[in-house]
TrEMBL record:
Keyword rRNA-binding: no
One Gene Ontology biological process: vacuolar acidification
Protein name (Swiss-Prot/TrEMBL): V/A-type H+-transporting ATPase subunit I
Keyword Chaperone: no
Matches recorded under Pfam families: V_ATPase_I
GO cellular component terms attached to this protein's record: proton-transporting V-type ATPase, V0 domain; vacuolar proton-transporting V-type ATPase complex
Parts forming coiled coils: 51-136, 234-261
Membrane-spanning segments: 371-395, 415-440, 446-465, 486-505, 511-533, 563-584, 590-614
Source species, domain of life: Bacteria
Localization terms from the record: Membrane
Similarity comment text for this entry: Belongs to the V-ATPase 116 kDa subunit family.
A Gene Ontology molecular function term of the record: ATPase binding
Lipid bilayer topology: Multi-pass membrane protein
Amino acid sequence: MAIAEMKKLTLISFHEKKDQLLQSIQALQRFEVVDLPSSDLGELDISPHEIDNLEDLIKKYETQIDHTQRALAFLQPHLPKESLIKKLQEAKQELSLEELEDEIQKFSPRDLVSFFLDKEHELEKIQEEQKRLYDEEAFLFNWKKLDFFPADLLKMEKVTGRVGTVPQHVQNEYINNLKNNEMLYVEEIYQNKDEHGVSLFFDRRDEEMVKQILNESHFDHLTETFKSKPSDELKAVQDRIAELKQQKKTIYQELNHMKDQEWQLMLTEEYYEAKLQRERSKLFLVDEKHLFVMEGWLETEKVPEIKDALKSIIDEDSYALTVEDVLEDDYDKVPVVLNNNDYVAPFETITSMYNLPKYNEIDPTPFLAPFYLVFFGMMAADLGYGLLLFVATLVSLKMFNFDPKMQKNMKFFHLLSYPTMIWGILYGTFFGAELPFVLLSTTDDVITILILSVVFGIVQIFFGLGLKAHLQLKYQNKAGAVSDGFGWIGIFTGLVILLLGNLILDSELMANIGAIIAVSSAVIIIIASTMGADNKALGFGLGFYNLYNITGYIGDIVSYTRLMALGVSSASIALAFNMIIGFIPTWGRFTVGILLFIALHAINIGLTMLSAYVHGARLIFVEFFGKFYEGGGKALAPLKASEKHIQLKNKQNIKRDGGI
């Protein structure tokens, strides 16, 4: 079984040792702290005030993390850009929790974060002022030719005037109404696509009539009060804009040389994250007057490590540690850790996408891996595509330092390159071109490939039914093993023999033997369902109903024809692309043709790999898992560091006198 064996650990120690122990457990990164029900331990000496203090501390760390992330997000766009390849090649620096604390002691995290948040606020204020000044500049630029104050118009005795705008019109109707009126003297200040800016002068005695004319022309009075001439104000605004630009430039230049501060911010985030996780875990502990109790799950093989870690930081008489086996009642609670070899582990991604197994189930990963390899290769089948995937993943794995999750995904696709190449050789295709040797032609042997697809499907269904029978026997359900597993294997075995006898070997004896096996297996299913039920009559009926599921099995078998369909369609599309390129004149094939070849096959590779990935998973989830697998387990959620910016050293290095 590829599910790691787990142990339940209970740790009791003094309050003053709590932080040390939590830090030591966090450094191990494999211990999941569980919420210990206080009701199991009787009346406890913990006040609501202490809980409130702990929750306030958690909120404080959450706020500090949020501020640190804001500061980091603000700084990073202003730093010199690194190439993606260089970033991928750089490995995360390894630090222990103690070393992380030592690094933090070299600077003030609070002052560092405040510095960048202040800079961010300063830039925001500059940008807000710039936005306001740009609007003001646009307004003043329009009126820069106005060489008097509009308020002065009211001081004249016999003549007065107005300053304002009239909207644009297709035939310039509004502005012409003003210019053609004998009572008005119109001076046009500016014109744009929306309006005309004008100054008007007229006799005070005509003021009432002028008002009517202005209304008819949709004249809008200028309400702005200028402190000086618009041209002078414009220059002042432009000078201020230039000054703000220089301030921004100075800030950007300062930020551009703060690569070291970026690293300090990363360390700060890691530091606060580590503290936050430890404080959150305290909510799961039970506190008495002098002692606290912690409970959690740990892999059996890691138990010696935690014992050694505890001994290295506190005296043995300062704590008590009990290690218990997992009880049947805990099967639904215990977290699941999948433990597979290097060749199977990458396929744990497929299992996790569906659902992790429960602790008492089997890990389906070793069983699905060979089927997924065959199915993916059959659907993506092309030697050229496989070679490209092989080289790309191999180079990436050798050159780049991925995080563990990405590393596993890259290994997953690297493994998939092998069946893609193998099936490409069998189909005789290389980037859609036919190889000199072809074992199965995607154009001439479609029926053979179809039969092969169905055969693979039947084999996988048989395998799933066998696993179902194995699990039922494991649970001491012999009747279930027969009715849900062995019986159906017998039915399908009989049907296969029957078809071979009738359609291929023309053997009546073989056909009769197959029919007898199929019918006998069906009868056995009915008997097993009856014997396994408390209500025999109901069990007898359920046995017949169970046989009705044969229609579902037929649908499952038909579903495997997609292995043929996708493999043939991918090869046909690649062949069609090559034919298109073949129509290009010879001189163009080595220029435009090369670019077209790369573009078209890149599209086909993407679609082919995506289809093979999705449909391969679909066959596993529905047709295979549907026969035996339930899932519903939960992943281990250990107390650990975030490891977003650093790699935590896998060793105990915690001071006996205290921790961070």
